Amino acid sequence: MPPARALPAELGAVRAPIADGFDEVVREAGDLDQFWIRSACGRLAAADAELAGVLRRRPALIPVLITTVVTAAVVAGSATLARATGGGLLAALTFSGLLSIVALHLAGVLRRRGTVSALPSPPDRPGPGLAEVPFALERARVRLVSAGLRRAGQANWRAPALRQAMSGDPVLGRLAVADLLLCQAIDCLERYLDDISKDWP
Amino acid sequence: MSRDDPFAGGVAPRLRRLDRELAAATTDAQCRDWTADRPDRIGFARLGQVRRELGNAAARYRTGTTGPDRTMISAVLLAVLLVGVPLLLLVPGPAQPARLTAIAVACVWALYLFRAVLRRLRIRRARKAPDRPAPIDDPFLYARARRTIESCAASARADRSYRRRGAAADLEYALDWLAAAQEELPRAR
């Protein structure tokens, strides 16, 4: 199916304007600690990390295999432990329940670790200016949305079905999160530009 | 006591309930924006900011706002009831490590199968479902959220713990974003 193969190229085309916009904001904004600028940079970095996560995603079979192996190890270990302590089925189930809670906790810790995004350092050539950044990001967003809609499939282009598809399909869910972060970044930048366009007394 | 009572339960469960409601409204508005049904890329972004601040506040209570999704819960129940329990009852000597391991692996695969089938069924059913009005346009959503956040901030401010008192500041930011989402502050263009 062509859309599935086209997704990395689409996402690359979305990530390039995001990186350019980030560079532009870092170069042009005077105060990087200003609230709107800081928020916009954070959202842009998070959106980029989200899209990179879509690209780096493992095939769907690998998590299934990992879960199978971990479950087998936990249950076999607890059954052996129950047999060694002289308990029956109930003891084995209790041990495996406790061990799986530990395993779930460890998995959560491992998943939460390491979501750091690295954006490229700004080049020296002059850019188009801060006021152009929201437009460029909005164009990037249009591409992102069309990639998401293509991923969802034509049959799901009504709001209720699209909502279910977003919660059901992990890739589409990540695209939706990236789109949300991108919209937040655009909103923050626009409010910053609105603030500096007024001449406060 | 009704379920929507803003003073029911501790702060963290109230925040989780509100976050679930806002998540539904945000996703719905985003879908409507994607399908150009109700094009508005500002409103759902700001509701997302509210959810982020609620998550910050919940993190100070050492809990998250995200619960397990319903599809996963029903898939787990189905796998345990339809595969795990019958196998445990039917297989002779289920306490032996090899047999118990096989049963557990069968349960896990059945869980993945049921989850995929349930997701597909939900999408299939939603294709024919009638469209409801968008919850982001509901003024009572904002009123409810504001009341809940204010009561949570009041209890956070009165908390003994220094760390949890910090949640009140996050909830103030959440109120700001909520007002911005509702009123659509002036923008550059």
From TrEMBL, chain A:
The keyword Transmembrane helix is annotated on this UniProt entry: yes
Bilayer-crossing regions: 60-82, 88-110
Keywords from the named record: Membrane, Transmembrane, Transmembrane helix
Keyword Transmembrane helix: yes
The organism's place on the tree of life at top rank: Bacteria
Protein name, entry field: Uncharacterized protein
The species this protein was found in: Actinoplanes cyaneus
Automatic annotation (TrEMBL), chain B:
Residue intervals passing through the bilayer: 72-92, 98-118
Keywords (A to Z) from UniProt: Membrane, Transmembrane, Transmembrane helix
Name the record gives this protein: Uncharacterized protein
Domain of life: Bacteria
Species name: Actinoplanes cyaneus
